[in-house]
Design a protein that fits this description.
Elements lengths: L1 H10 L4 H14 L5 H13 L11 H11 L3 H7 L4 H7 L9 E5 L15 E5 L6 E4 L7 H12 L4 H4 L11 E5 L10 E8 L2 E9 L15 E5 L5 E2 L2 E2 L15 H12 L4 E9 L2 E8 L9 E2 L2 H7 L12
Antiparallel strand pairs: 1-4, 2-3, 2-4, 5-6, 5-10, 6-7, 7-8, 9-12, 10-11
Length: 319
């Protein structure tokens, strides 16, 4: 019953914002709780299932294990939406970075947008979904945007999902080029799941964001999973599957796979995200503990199958 009520509150437009804030305050209240106890309670409250961290088998269990045991400083740099740009450049892939217009250390620094293009994105560098889109500078409500960003600037993602890489990120707001296709095609995410530096699965995701730039509800997104030969995998993760004839496959798939391999090389697991915009590959982000280790895969057996790709015995090689 608790799980059902949670999903209703989380997915209802009227209660979504309140639920998000209550969730954060609950996490802050439990900040002193021991990691394993917090993880087991958090996961059970979300799915009604137990989490085994002593002998992890599923993908989720191994992701939670990584949260508590794999603390490579490079994770913090690459989880930071601003500093990750340095890592991309160091790998010789500067050409796939989105254009950066400005960087702000504080909300108060955003005083005038006259020098910015007509369209742009404002993004917090330290959280997931802390985005505001400007479609038309002439009617853009800057004060409303600053109020929303101010809430995100005071969040530490670590306290909600114990994702270590977010704990010490210094909050900033970055202003980037607005991504859109000139041919009118929707923005599609191409997400490569890489294990020990090797891409094993790709997720093609339609409808990730709402019109305002924030994350769309999971049940309104379309997720199609494929093996590396783009053969469909008949699985879902609390989202819909788009008919194959409507899926927009990337033209530069092989290049994306090569870039993902380069960027994933130092890590036991990372999801490498790209877009394809006007015949160009654009880097999205690096995600080390995707979904916070909370997937609702159907069939449920897939969670263990995916987990089998992640060899925790090799973690010492990366420390």
């Amino acid at each position: 019953m608790k799980t059902i009520v949670r999903k209703i509150l989380e997915n209802n437009r009227m209660t979504q914002g309140v639920y998000s804030k209550l969730r954060y305050y609950y996490a802050k209240f439990n900040a002193g709780k021991e990691n394993e106890k917090y993880a087991v309670e958090y996961y059970y409250n979300k799915f009604g299932r137990k989490l085994n961290l002593h002998d992890p088998k599923t993908f989720d269990e191994k992701i939670w294990w990584l949260k508590f045991n794999y603390h490579n400083p490079l994770l913090t740099k690459c989880a930071d939406k601003f500093l990750v740009r340095e890592y991309i450049k160091e790998q010789g892939l500067e050409h796939i970075l989105n254009d950066l217009y400005a960087v702000y250390d504080d909300i108060s620094e955003i005083k005038c947008i006259d020098q910015l293009p007509e369209k742009f994105y404002l993004k917090c560098n330290h959280v997931s979904g802390g985005n505001v889109a400007c479609f038309n500078k002439k009617i853009f409500d800057l004060e409303k945007a600053k109020k929303k960003l101010s809430w995100y600037m005071n969040i530490n993602q670590y306290y909600i999902t114990r994702e270590w890489q977010y704990k010490d990120i210094r909050p900033k707001i970055i202003c980037e080029k607005f991504l859109e296709n000139s041919n009118g095609n929707p923005l599609v995410d191409y997400k490569f799941y890489c294990f020990n530096g090797i891409p094993k699965m790709v997720l093609i995701k339609h409808g990730t964001s709402k019109a305002d730039g924030s994350h769309q509800k999971e049940n309104l997104q379309y997720e199609n999973y494929y093996d590396m030969k783009l053969n469909p995998l008949n699985i879902t993760d609390n989202s819909q599957i788009l008919p194959e004839n409507e899926v927009i496959f990337p033209f530069y798939y092989q290049e994306m796979k090569e870039y993902a391999t380069v960027l994933a090389e130092p890590f036991p697991f990372v999801r490498v995200d790209f877009y394809e915009i006007n015949n160009n590959i654009i880097f999205g982000e690096l995600t080390f503990t995707c979904a916070g280790g909370c997937h609702d895969f159907k069939p449920t057996e897939f969670n263990e199958e995916l987990g089998s790709y992640l060899d925790l015995s090799k973690i010492s090689l990366y420390e």
